[in-house]
Amino acid sequence: MTDVQHMKWWGWGLEGVAFHHEDKPGFAPFILEQLALDLHAVTPTGMPAFDKVTVAKSLISAPLQKSLSDIVGAEYVTTDKMERVVHAYGKSLRDLVRIRANQIERTPDVVVYPGNEAEVQKIVDAAVKADAVLIPFGGGSNIGGSLEPLRTEKRVVISLDMGRMNKVLEIDSDAGLALIQAGALGPDLEEQLAAKGWTIGHFPDSFTHSTLGGWIATRSSGMQSDKYGDIADITRGLRLVRPGGTVVIRPIPSASNGPSVREMILGSEGRLGVVTEAWVQVHRIPAKRDVYAYFFPNFETGLKAMQEIAESDAAPTITRVSDNMETRFSLATSKESHGITKFVSGTVLPAIFKSKGWNLEEICLSFIGYEGGERHAKLQKKLVDKIVKKYNGMGVGKGPGILYDQKKFDTPYIRDFLLDRGAAGDVSESAAPWSKLQKLHDGAVDAAHDAFKKIGAQGVIISHLSHSYHSGACLYFTFGFKFGKDALGDYDIVKSAIQQSFIDNGGSISHHHGVGLEHAPWLEDDISASGMSVLQGLFDSVDPKGNFNPGKVIAAPGLDQGNSGGALKKAATTRSAATRAKAPAVASKPAPKRTSGSTAKAKVNAAK
Asked: What's the domain range around 302?
């Protein structure tokens, strides 16, 4: 079979890698206080048994399977049950709850691993000819429901795993462009680029288990987007395989050639075809890279400082500030003798905070990164330090920033840890103008706590600002609660309350996780009814029979989207006048992910 590796079928990351709290003395008390969950009194469920999982018989016909085998080779076509489950869902809380509860309502019927674009073209043509459904699969890290087949789908579903197409094909050194196959995982493409002195600079939370194609499909954003841009800025050209031919977007710096087809493909989640490769902007590996930690007296002040930094001549790589609750969470996940804890747990720093008139229940932690030549990086820090001082902030050096860099991809493991112990943990993110960010933050926090009361659970929501722009920024929320007998029902209420608060307070429904099935009920609120008509017209004309990942972003014509594990409904009892009276039910998510040999090396020490 293929040497393409995947994440655990039942959780995040590689087998043998997990979050441990025993060496983090503040974690158990934080969870007890915020979720009313005593980690010392609960027995974790552990890894579920795959032999207890029910997988329906594959619907693929012998002729279609032979056709696919003739294209790529029989060893790269499989109906194996484990493979089909791995490709059925992503890694959201909804996905993991369902998969552990044996609620796998529809899996792909076959998984195919193409080795080049010519094979992808033949697979696409064969699938459309057979009126089958084709769902591209990258790393499997999606949390928006972009990978799962519709529950009511009666046609054959083909999962097109791009994992064999993982090479950096060409580098244009003069232009700073690299041609990379869509199935390349973050660590793999960075390793290949670094060997020649380059970096793409795109590092989302899912970096170790997500691909270039997946980033493009969902309009991903990385932790260093302040310098390098979002994937929509980084992607300059691409190739999209469609029935009978390939859309080719050349990597031109800028052009006036009508509505941007490139932009139509970005964020289309496989609805328009299969991205096989892309030209992306790359940069020389910087001579210097430092991440410094700062404290601000409160979140409001931190937001103002980030806004002024964005408006200034400074050009940091990372601008991030956590609210007080996330700051407390960061302290709780630090080891006793390392990280931020050693600064705050002693007597010196708290005494300094007190002398400045700060309330420890309001202080906020910030990380700001600088890259470039020695002189450039020093100048950026000097400009930022001046702004930080203006807003009464205080720097605490590079030590915490180094640890932030080392652990930045580890957070998803905490979700599995909590789920093993009867608690939910998930994320939602939004973007808004600077003038609305505080309202967006407060509205989401209030909505979450109202939802916690509604389900009778104690919960917590934490947030940080990241991805700053001239006009605004992204706020990233993480929420958790101890669920009752109906885990997904409780989750629907909390998640929908947070999503509705984004709309009510001037934010977007998503910043970098895409739409999929999860966020689709709010799409019309975000882009207007006329905008939905334009989008529907695009999908209808390009894919009239709904062969390409139907139901994602917006429902495919004539197809019942269905739902999985309890539809995500809008739980808010009051809606603004601009929103619809009733929103369509939304299904759920996708499953496991793969990671190549070099990926296995990357960050395997996560969550230790």
From this structure: 288-407
Largest CA distance in the chain: 77
Give the DSSP per-residue string, 32-73: HHHH---TTT-----SPPGGG---PPP---HHHHHHHHHHH-
Banded pLDDT at 470 (limits 50, 70, 90): very high
Do residues 389 and 333 share a domain? yes
Domain end call among 256, 285, 314: 285
Known catalytic residues are 476
Residue 173 CA neighbour count, 13 Å, CB half:
3
CA pair distance 530, 566, nearest whole angstrom: 29
pLDDT > 70? residue 579: no
**Residue 516 CB partners (closer than 8 Å, separation 6+):** 142, 144, 145, 146, 147, 269, 552, 553, 589
Amino acid letter for position 263: E
Taking the model in full, what pTM does it have?
Answer: 0.90
Give pLDDT tens digits for 186-211. Answer: 999 999 999 999 999 999 999 999 99
Q: What is the DSSP letter of 329?
A: H
| Angle, helices 27-35/324-332, rounded to nearest 10 degrees | 140
The tokens for 594 are 């793969």
Exposed, middle or buried: residue 327 (CB in 10 Å: 0-12, 13-18, 19+)?
Answer: buried
CATH of the domain at 119: 3.30.43.10
295 and 330 in a single domain? The answer is yes
Q: What is the 3-state secondary structure (H, E, C) of 366-403?
A: EEEEEEECHHHHHHHHHHHHHHHHHCCCEECCCHHHHH
CB-CB contact of 349 with 400 (8 Å): no
Question: What separation in angstroms does the CA of 50 have from each of 81, 112, 161?
Answer: 10, 22, 21
Does the pLDDT of residue 304 top 60, yes or no? yes
Residues 204 and 225 in one domain: yes
Within 10 angstroms of residue 597's Cβ, the number of other Cβ atoms is: 10
Q: Are residues 91 and 143 in the same domain?
A: yes
310 domain-assigned: yes
